[in-house]
Amino acid sequence: MKKIILIISITISVLVLVFVVWRLLILSQPTTDSSMLDEEETASGKLQLLSSEPIFGFWIDLSGNIYTVLENGAISRLSQDGKLEPLSEQSIPSISSVNPSSDGLRTIISFGYPTKESFSVFDTKTNRFIPLSEGTSSADWHPSSSDRLVYIQNRGEKNVISTFTVSSQKSSELITLSQKGLRLDWASPEEIYLFDLPDNKSTGSLWTLNISTKTLRPIIKEESGLMTKWFSNNSFGLKLSFVNQLPSLEIIDQQNRTLAKLPFVGLPSECAEALSENRIYCAIPDAQDNLNGFLRRYLKKEDFYADSVYAIPTNIGIDQRLENAVMPISSPALDANVDISELSAYNGDLYFINRADRLLYRLDL
Question: Quick check: helix, strand or coil at residue 89?
Answer without folding.
Answer: coil
